[in-house]
Amino acid sequence: MMYIFPRQFGLHNVFTSVVDRQQTTQKFQDYTLREDEIAKKFPKKDKDDQPIKHIPKRLRGGPKQLVQRLQILHGRCSYASMLQHYCPIAEQVVVEEETSDSSTNKPPLPQLAPQTSKRTKGRSMSQPAQSSVPPLQYNLLTELATPLANVSAFCQAILSRIIPNDFWGEGTLQAQNKKTFLKMVNHFVHLRRFESMCLHDVVQGMKASWQRPYFQPTPDI
């Protein structure tokens, strides 16, 4: 939850924090890994040597359940199978016959191993299985290119599967917000080299249901 709601936990964020120019020259800092920052913020540990993280009152209940649901859906999602479905690659790309003055063969491209389901303590766990498909051989790297429409469909399918519907709101707003977001995902995939998009473009057209209890301001204690 600290990666999704850093401001609520008092961590560095894009809204109220100042970018440290000694760490990055970009407009915003890189928040990919925040474990060191979290360890400094919450130094106390429990009996299992795990940091004690107090969840803010505003994030208890509904928001916490949504994040837990997202983690469950992420664990159940078969990314490799969906990638093969939406962005398939031919099992064998024919390579032109070598001539006396031809260049050396290109290195084979590793295959994505399919996943098999294994039950452990009542929970289904996905593990990679050995594949008998020979490695791909190709003459030009462009032969392995995937159309933008396939990439967009893959991204939208993954996000639709792992993000709970309640993240998008309630009632008619839910379908509208989800449709708007997926439309911007398609737009992002089709951006050209020097084109860009900002957060304002992503949330443009999305609406929030302010009746939800965790959107209400937290009273000062």
From TrEMBL:
<feature type="compositionally biased region" description="Polar residues">
    <location>
        <begin position="113"/>
        <end position="132"/>
    </location>
</feature>
<dbReference type="GO" id="GO:0007004">
    <property type="term" value="P:telomere maintenance via telomerase"/>
</dbReference>
<feature type="domain" description="Telomerase ribonucleoprotein complex - RNA-binding">
    <location>
        <begin position="150"/>
        <end position="209"/>
    </location>
</feature>
<keyword id="KW-0539">Nucleus</keyword>
<dbReference type="GO" id="GO:0000781">
    <property type="term" value="C:chromosome, telomeric region"/>
</dbReference>
<keyword id="KW-0695">RNA-directed DNA polymerase</keyword>
<dbReference type="InterPro" id="IPR003545">
    <property type="entry name" value="Telomerase_RT"/>
</dbReference>
<keyword id="KW-0460">Magnesium</keyword>
<dbReference type="InterPro" id="IPR021891">
    <property type="entry name" value="Telomerase_RBD"/>
</dbReference>
<feature type="region of interest" description="Disordered">
    <location>
        <begin position="98"/>
        <end position="132"/>
    </location>
</feature>
<comment type="function">
    <text>Telomerase is a ribonucleoprotein enzyme essential for the replication of chromosome termini in most eukaryotes. It elongates telomeres. It is a reverse transcriptase that adds simple sequence repeats to chromosome ends by copying a template sequence within the RNA component of the enzyme.</text>
</comment>
<keyword id="KW-0479">Metal-binding</keyword>
<dbReference type="GO" id="GO:0046872">
    <property type="term" value="F:metal ion binding"/>
</dbReference>
<dbReference type="GO" id="GO:0070034">
    <property type="term" value="F:telomerase RNA binding"/>
</dbReference>
<keyword id="KW-0158">Chromosome</keyword>
<dbReference type="GO" id="GO:0003720">
    <property type="term" value="F:telomerase activity"/>
</dbReference>
<dbReference type="GO" id="GO:0000333">
    <property type="term" value="C:telomerase catalytic core complex"/>
</dbReference>
<protein>
    <recommendedName>
        <fullName>Telomerase reverse transcriptase</fullName>
        <ecNumber>2.7.7.49</ecNumber>
    </recommendedName>
</protein>
<keyword id="KW-0779">Telomere</keyword>
<comment type="similarity">
    <text>Belongs to the reverse transcriptase family. Telomerase subfamily.</text>
</comment>
<keyword id="KW-0548">Nucleotidyltransferase</keyword>
<dbReference type="Pfam" id="PF12009">
    <property type="entry name" value="Telomerase_RBD"/>
</dbReference>
<keyword id="KW-0808">Transferase</keyword>
<dbReference type="GO" id="GO:0042162">
    <property type="term" value="F:telomeric DNA binding"/>
</dbReference>
